[in-house]
Amino acid sequence: MTEQNWAGSYTYRARSIHRPDTVDAVRRIVAQVPKVRALGSRHSFHDLPDSTGELISLEALPRSVRLDTENRTVTVSAGTLYGDLATELHRAGWALGAMASLPHIAVAGAIGTGTHGSGDRVGSLAAEVTGLTLIDPDGELRTLAADDPDLPGAVVHLGALGVLTEVTLRMEPTYEVAQYVVDDVPWEYVLTELDALTSAAYSVSIFARWNAPTVQVWLKSRDGEAGLPVGTPARHKAHPGGRDPVNCTDQLGEPGAWYDRLPHFRMGFTPSSGREIQAEYLLPRTHAVAAFEALRELGPIIAPLLQACEIRTVAADELWLSGSYARDTVAIHFTLAPEPVKVTALLGRIEEALAGLEARPHWGKWFTTPAAAIAGMYPRMADFRALVRRYDPAGKFSNAFLQRVVLGE
Ligand SMILES: Cc1cc2nc3c(=O)[nH]c(=O)nc-3n(C[C@H](O)[C@H](O)[C@H](O)COP(=O)(O)OP(=O)(O)OC[C@H]3O[C@@H](n4cnc5c(N)ncnc54)[C@H](O)[C@@H]3O)c2cc1C
Questions:
Q1: What pLDDT digit, counting tens, does each position of 11-44 carry?
Q2: Cα dist from 351 to 171, 314, 342, 344, whole Å
Q3: Measured from the CB, is residue 108 less than 6 Å from ligand 1?
Q4: Residue 172 has what pLDDT?
Q5: For the CA of 41, the nearest atom of ligand 1
Q6: Residues 12, 50: contact at Cβ < 8 Å?
Q7: 225 CA to middle of ligand 1, Å?
Q8: Could you report the per-residue pLDDT of 121-146, keeping only the tens digit for each?
Q9: Probe target for ligand 1 pocket from 41, 115, 330, with the most ligand atoms within 8 Å of CB
């Protein structure tokens, strides 16, 4: 098989990718085969979704979006892309509180790794989940409602518990966002006024190069004009990686629907396979300044491989394997050149610099942090392993990534 992930950095080794067009057909495949995993929109950067047996893509399943306006929730088929869900919600007068940088990511895959956007009071995409339905190893449907004690363990699922068919998310009345970019914000301001900086708008992203004296800040505001007491408001549209901004959502204070401003990139634009490798570390807010100082020391070795670096904040949640579990978080993301050997060496240096700062690697991106260190950063890891044993006793949904990084004790 020659099918690859979005970035082209990984070729799936599974025997085949099935594309069933009914939930019953998915159930039959799951019940019949010894090893199987679900494949989302392929935005993870390594072998996380892979299986030694079969892969099931949900892309041919009918899309469904069911609103419950009384309880302010939406139940969506698991393979739906966030951008498609967002358009439907907005049309009906509703919205989500959070979006990732890109709207092209599937709901089940995104929540499965704790995918997040930014905002001091904005939780991850997973934190919006109030229920889900999955297919268990016998092909039976199992629904976890909001009050199910397993739900907090099952949302950031890493594909380990079954094939999700539906996800229920919180929604709120639709709203507008205006986006402002501020150039030349001194590092000194970031280091001394971080709380003021990250609370200057509903969603704030800091783009850093680590070897420069200033950063660029993106402010996404729900309450009109937003700015900073330092730096220079941008007069032209910006791109997170400094490239042509044509595919970026509108900036310069032009208000627009939430789903066309919270992501940096437009839904209408279909990104080609990206020549890049991503890595990200999620740290307690309290360690943010120490982490920035350590990374600035590494500026000269980061810069040559760096395409973009984005610093975001995420509100604490209660999801066992979430990068923001039980702590308000600062997430430091790196888009790096597609040079695996050099990137692996660099990540080792970055992780060394962040040692002791409880830097949880993003599950869907590259890292070299050893499994034992990762387990030590997740207080509910033993509970998650027990949940996996209970839901999938024969390891039908297990794979090399899970054994290497999560389940191997
Ligand atoms: C360009 C780009 C931008 C990104 N932006 C962000 C960002 O802003 N914030 C952030 O936090 N991350 C971001 N990511 C990372 C990305 O959101 C995660 O890797 C996410 O998990 C990818 O979801 P996917 O649907 O593509 O899943 P895949 O990579 O296909 O799979 C991810 C996991 O989900 C499982 N899975 C998928 N569907 C199902 C299902 N139906 N049932 C059970 N398991 C399932 C798979 O088995 C696998 O374990 C980005 C990645 C890229 C390439």
A1: 999 999 999 999 999 999 999 999 999 999 999 9
A2: 36, 20, 14, 11
A3: yes
A4: 98
A5: 26
A6: yes
A7: 33
A8: 999 999 999 999 999 999 999 999 99
A9: 115
Q: Is any atom of ligand 1 closer than 6 Å to the C-beta of 158?
A: yes
Give the per-residue pLDDT at 271: 62
Please tell me the CATH code under which domain 65-174 is placed.
Answer: 3.30.465.10
Domain boundaries, the chain: 16-57, 65-174
Please tell me the predicted confidence (pLDDT) of residue 220. Answer: 98
CA 125 to CA 115: how far, in whole Å? 6
Quick one: angle between helices 340-353 and 288-297, nearest 10?
130
Which residues of the chain carry a pLDDT beneath 70? 1, 270-273, 409
Q: Which residue has the tokens 């290497």?
A: 404
| Residue 135 burial by Cβ neighbours in a 10 Å radius (0-12, 13-18, 19+) | buried
Structure tokens at 125: 């995409």
Q: Which two tokens stand for residue 328?
A: 């308000």
Going from the Cα of 45 to the center of ligand 1, the distance in angstroms, rounded, reads 9
The preferred substitution site among 29, 105, 163 for testing ligand 1, maximizing ligand atoms within 8 Å of CB, is 105
Ranges of H-type helices in 35-165 = 82-91, 107-112, 151-154
pLDDT for the residue 408: 84
